[in-house]
């Protein structure tokens, strides 16, 4: 049987690299990868030329301009412009060059700031977005709507998945500028090594978050990409087609900190710094659509934190300096 030629856009990122680790083990798939230097996804002509010459069968669109709250607030143009350009270029070129299947990867920040919890897919466009990352969220919503529009107008089979908070290898472990899991793994690790009497965790410890290991995200993405078209169509609507990806389970930041302490072997005190922001009190996705489609997460938070901590220790040279 002829191998499927699968292009993973963004294969050096956290999610793209996890997808490549899994697809790389399949003998029915031939991966097609390009670094940013080899193919600039902001360049419409270059993207077109790539699709014209590569005979791609499937695309995982995991390339995105991403960043934390400070970056989103400081460079809103980069977040809306670059994401919309990359999505438009890749999705349009995929359609033009007859790519049968495409999976667009988004983010749970597409949902309104005050969405009902757990957040169903139908909460999309029901309220005002969180202002700090509105430009990024609008670009991601545009990506979903691009896929749906090509499906409606041209009968394409382009699907979208929206992950909850992800963590795992290749995450950003910057000391001040990362999400809570890499921040705490690093801080507890350093406190353990230096025998520090206490470790500071931001906020009150009471906010609740859902966390998904990126290997689970990759597995869910491949699962959704490979669902039969009839099954996918039965479980989605033409103008409400995106699928939440998460565990369906959340925990408090205090519980997370306790688990990180166990995983890193830290025995000192944990102190909560109430001068730092808590952010939204709860963010949990409703994953019944994904469960109905037959996918459930496999990596527990304890296992996922332990393996991510091991990865951090093996790779931490790159985070120094
Ligand atoms: P959010 O889901 O967009 O709020 O993303 P974050 O991962 O930045 O924060 C999640 C929660 O963890 C918030 O309530 C933070 O206050 C809390 N938190 C505790 N310690 C830290 C830390 O060192 N870094 C970050 N980013 N968040 C922390």
From TrEMBL:
Domain NAD-dependent epimerase/dehydratase residues, every copy: 6-230
Stored SUPFAM superfamilies: NAD(P)-binding Rossmann-fold domains
Pfam families in the cross-refs: Epimerase (PF01370)
EC number(s) on file: 1.1.1.271
General function of this protein: Catalyzes the two-step NADP-dependent conversion of GDP-4-dehydro-6-deoxy-D-mannose to GDP-fucose, involving an epimerase and a reductase reaction.
InterPro entries per the UniProt record, alphabetical: Epimerase_deHydtase, GDP_fucose/colitose_synth, NAD(P)-bd_dom_sf
Binding-site positions, NADP(+): 10-16, 105-108, 140, 163-166, 179
Active site: 136 (proton donor/acceptor)
Binding site for substrate: 187, 202, 209, 278
Organism of origin: Atlantibacter subterraneus
PANTHER family: GDP-L-FUCOSE SYNTHASE (PTHR43238)
Protein's UniProt keywords contain NADP: yes
Domain of life: Bacteria
GO molecular function: GDP-L-fucose synthase activity; isomerase activity; NADP+ binding
Protein name as annotated: GDP-L-fucose synthase
UniProt site (Important for catalytic activity): 107, 109
Family: Belongs to the NAD(P)-dependent epimerase/dehydratase family. Fucose synthase subfamily.
């Amino acid at each position: 049987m002829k191998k499927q030629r699968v292009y993973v856009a963004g294969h050096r990122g956290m999610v793209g690299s996890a997808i490549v680790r899994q697809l790389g083990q399949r003998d029915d798939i031939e991966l097609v990868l390009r670094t940013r230097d080899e193919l600039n996804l902001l360049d419409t002509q270059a993207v077109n030329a790539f699709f014209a010459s590569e005979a791609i069968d499937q695309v995982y669109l995991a390339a995105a301009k991403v960043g934390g709250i400070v970056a989103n607030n400081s460079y809103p143009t980069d977040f809306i412009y670059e994401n919309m350009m990359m999505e438009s270029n890749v999705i349009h070129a995929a359609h033009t060059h007859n790519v049968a299947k495409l999976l667009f990867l988004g983010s749970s920040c597409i949902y309104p700031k005050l969405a009902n919890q757990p957040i169903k897919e139908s909460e999309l466009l029901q309220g005002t977005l969180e202002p700090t990352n509105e430009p990024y969220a609008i670009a991601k919503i545009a990506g979903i709507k691009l896929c749906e529009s090509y499906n409606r107008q041209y009968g394409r089979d382009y699907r979208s998945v929206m992950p909850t908070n992800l963590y795992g290898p290749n995450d950003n472990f910057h000391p001040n500028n990362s999400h809570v899991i890499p921040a705490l793994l690093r801080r507890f690790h350093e406190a353990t090594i230096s025998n520090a009497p206490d470790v500071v965790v931001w906020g009150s410890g009471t906010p609740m978050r859902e966390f998904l290991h990126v290997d689970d995200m990759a597995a869910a993405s491949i699962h959704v990409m490979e669902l039969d078209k009839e099954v996918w169509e039965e479980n989605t609507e033409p103008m409400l087609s995106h699928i939440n990806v998460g565990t369906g389970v959340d925990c408090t930041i205090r519980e997370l900190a306790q688990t990180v302490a166990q995983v890193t072997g830290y025995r000192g005190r944990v102190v909560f710094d109430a001068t730092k922001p808590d952010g939204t009190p709860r963010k949990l996705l409703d994953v019944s659509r994904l469960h109905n489609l037959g996918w459930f997460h496999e990596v527990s938070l304890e296992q996922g934190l332990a393996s991510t901590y091991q990865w951090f220790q093996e790779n931490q040279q790159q985070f120094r300096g």
